[in-house]
TrEMBL record:
Reactions mediated catalytically: guanosine(2445) in 23S rRNA + S-adenosyl-L-methionine = N(2)-methylguanosine(2445) in 23S rRNA + S-adenosyl-L-homocysteine + H(+); guanosine(2069) in 23S rRNA + S-adenosyl-L-methionine = N(2)-methylguanosine(2069) in 23S rRNA + S-adenosyl-L-homocysteine + H(+)
Domain of life (superkingdom): Bacteria
Phylogenetic lineage: Bacteria, Pseudomonadati, Pseudomonadota, Gammaproteobacteria, Aeromonadales
Family: Belongs to the methyltransferase superfamily. RlmKL family.
Enzyme Commission number, as recorded: 2.1.1.173, 2.1.1.264
Function: Specifically methylates the guanine in position 2445 (m2G2445) and the guanine in position 2069 (m7G2069) of 23S rRNA.
HAMAP family: 23SrRNA_methyltr_KL
UniProt name for this protein: Ribosomal RNA large subunit methyltransferase K/L
Gene that encodes it: rlmKL
Organism from which the protein derives: Oceanisphaera pacifica
Amino acid sequence: MLPFFATCPKGLESLLNDELKALGATDLQETVAGIAFRGELSTAYRACMWSRLASRIMLQLAEFTMRTDMDLYLGAANVEWEQHIQPGQTFAVDFSGANEAITNTQYGALKIKDAIVDRLTKRHGERPNVDKRTPDIRILAHLKRNNQLSITLDLSGPALHQRGYRQQAGEAPLKENLAVAILLRSGWDITKPLVDPMCGSGTLLIEAALMATDHAPGLLRVRFGFMAWSGHNRELWQEISAEATLRATRGIKQGNTELYGFDQDKRVLDFAQENAEAAGVAAFIRFKTGGVNTLTNPADEAGWVISNPPYGERLSEFPSLLGLHQQLGDKLREQFKGWHVSLISSSPELLSCLRLRPEKTYKLFNGALACDLRNYLIAEDAKAARPLAEDFANRLKKNIKGLEKWAKKEQIDCYRLYDADLPEYNAAIDRYQDYLVIQEYAAPKTIAQHKARGRFYDLVQATQAVTGVDGRKVILKVRARQQGREQYEKLDRRDQWMQVQEHNAQLLVNLYDYLDTGLFLDHRPIRKQLGEMAKGKDFLNLFAYTGSASVHAGLGGAKSTTTVDMSKTYLAWAERNMALNGLTGRRHQFIQADCLNWLRKPGEDYDLIFVDPPTFSNSKRMDAEFDIQRDHIELLSLLSKRLRQDGVLIFSNNKRHFKMDIEALTELGLVAKDITKGSLPKDFVRNPHIHNCWEIRWS
């Protein structure tokens, strides 16, 4: 009896254990991502031919304690390599793991390679060659945390999940052994129909067909690692291959399993068809172009729906995926009553959008990605799911009805549709032409995270249903309490711009790359007012962000505009906004500076000043921290030195419960009028604390 080791993806160990036992393995010991076992050489050959779950089958050559690199060299040199590697053959060594002595895997592999070369040179009289890409013999070494090193000979060659039929692959294809694990965990009866509504390049269906026709997964492979091994028994392997060929021929003739694959991408379906033909099971699979929205039940009897729906890695992909999963759940209830359903996903939140209760959940890994495999049974009397978030949907409909005509009349492309009107749906929804930006506010600590996230996803789906906006035009953002300029930090790198209209101004927004879009919608009336006040005046826009206030002032006939901000990025954005409206030339200045330091230096005076500072900032580019409540009088004092005698200063900030220091302002000779109420646009009247706004003049 020989010692062997079989590797597999995490989560498949118990399935592989059962499979190896059925193939004749004994003394099985389950570890993470693998099974140690014993058996005859025929057992290892059968595992290479028939294992649908293993990644590799390896012959264990040595195991010893390794604390130093000399331990490694001597332990490897004691292996009788002349019994495994013939003169003239090439070999390669792969090393994994580390300890204090071996911190670099390449160094570990090098020490074993040196031991092999030295021993074989001494035994054979000639030096063997190393071929890292396509060696005749591949040696694998693994160093465990307890300093135990195992050296094995790879009998598999290319990983066993590479069956040999995959001609083409779609995006993020399943590995074949994971597909088999999904089929086994689903409980699929190979005599019953199987439907994959998002089949991609067909891996699940092809593996199902191979199982149903008793087709050995290794039968299509041309090469195995043991074929160049000195201990290879060719006659034994030919017997096992002949038996597998006979069983596959019989299975193909007798097979009658119905397998159906759908996908909306015809190009990927063509790949699936080619793969099925290469596997010899195309006759059992019917591929048809179609998305989830057109999915119908193709079978006459109840069976299984098994699929690997897309789950995305970016927040921007979620709106489309939420809608897809909701739609899939609806179709399953409508078309597949009495059917079993198994779906794998790395996103439990997306699976929850099916609104189906799982009977069983398994943990599997798709590469390094932890996934849930959930098994469902669709009831015979399954009814359509209730509309999502009905209270929210009704409120959104009401808001849209009250705002659409108003926005059109005002010539506004961008406005707020919803702003946490209902406490349990804590988000803001802004329309930018035919796009929606949905910002999730951080939930109170008293609300469980999974519950808050579930409500948010319900809100997103209901928003798409009410507005009819395609999920690809819905942008999700998470907004917690922001410090200083955190809201300006880069989120994405699409560099995708949209030109929008605000009254008589054209402005550029970026919906993807930052938490804010480049346009503070609540300041819209203030910008309009500035435009009406600016004719013939010298205008200063301090903490200018993307310069939208400067645009309105310029269009209003300002004699000059000066736009000051600390950010080079936003100042360039402001310059683009001004140019978009024909506001170019020397009378329009753009200055990158720490705004407070800039004010402390001698400079021009202005008739009209707009300042909208951050609530708090500790940017490295500023000399000191800035706190609007603590420092607003110092700021206004500096601004007063730039404000002409008959000038007007519009001061705004978004700190809740901000209190103007009227007494200190009076000492400066200034008088302030609170114009907050009149500065709120119709789409923000429900949030009177969105900003504070003051009109300040000389007394």
